[in-house]
Amino acid sequence: MSTALAVTSPDHLLAATDRHTPHAHVFSPPDEQPLAEALAQTQALLEQHGYLLTVFPATLPTPFRHRLHTVRSLLESRRIALLPVELPPLACGMLVRQLRQLSLCDFTPGVLGAAARLLTHYLYAGAVLGSVAKLDRVPVAVGSHARSWLPGTQFAVLAAPTPELIRLGTPGSEEGLTGPRFATELTVAPGQLSADWALRSLPARWRVARVHEAPLPRDSAAWWGTAKLTEFVAAIPDVSVLYQLVASVRRDECPGCGLELIGDRCAFCATPLPPAPTASSVPPAPRAPAPRAPSTPPPAPSVAPAAPAAPSAPATSEPVVADPRGIRP
């Protein structure tokens, strides 16, 4: 069985870099689509593919989120995974494109669903903002809030993988934001703010291989707290590298639904893996009672028995993960 991808906005469908990357289904909001139609579409996807991964932003409106859970509940299917992500809108679309690429590989649905959380650690997502007065996704100092009211002030903000904020054009900002230490390509979505810094200065500092332009998602202004912005994301473009990242993580069997997975929680049934036993949690072996000394000692063996060989440690596959955050090696 294959795995289908679904999103909650067409803005999260970035153009594919090759003709082999499959498309993803777009769910409509509940005020635009009757429940019966949403059920029929989801049932058709399950019959055609077998499993369905639905990726949506954590800021999705509550009625829309309830619609997704209602469809899954009415179909009584554990073959539907609902994956909320904390990424900015453009980075959410990039994550979906990477999952679309990996859906053509030989990963099982459980592994592909759990790979979403792993891949977020390799996305460098940010924006150039004209104001941070209403930014609540990244910590902002009081001084930066005050400078937001100065005409012409611009800020470069990194939301993932680690929040950072600098004021452009000031001493000390020459080094810029912390960039990736692996090969990436940069995607820039210009908005109501000049994209020169994101299109020229940032690629040189981050040493990206190529720069692409994309339309700015409609929910970017709400996510960043201002319409004066240009959004960007640096990501690994090579599907073979993405494949190696996912394949290098140890796999387990979900105790709830039996799917193969990576990490510590199943993306389909949300069952957590039990913690790995530690040396301190293993009870000591019972001690055998000391035998009584025989009246006549037994004869000594002519050849001392060889000590049993120590069992070899099982081979493990170390993940190529800089900051696993829950991904179990």
From TrEMBL:
<protein>
    <submittedName>
        <fullName>Uncharacterized protein</fullName>
    </submittedName>
</protein>
<feature type="compositionally biased region" description="Pro residues">
    <location>
        <begin position="277"/>
        <end position="302"/>
    </location>
</feature>
<feature type="compositionally biased region" description="Low complexity">
    <location>
        <begin position="303"/>
        <end position="322"/>
    </location>
</feature>
<feature type="region of interest" description="Disordered">
    <location>
        <begin position="277"/>
        <end position="329"/>
    </location>
</feature>
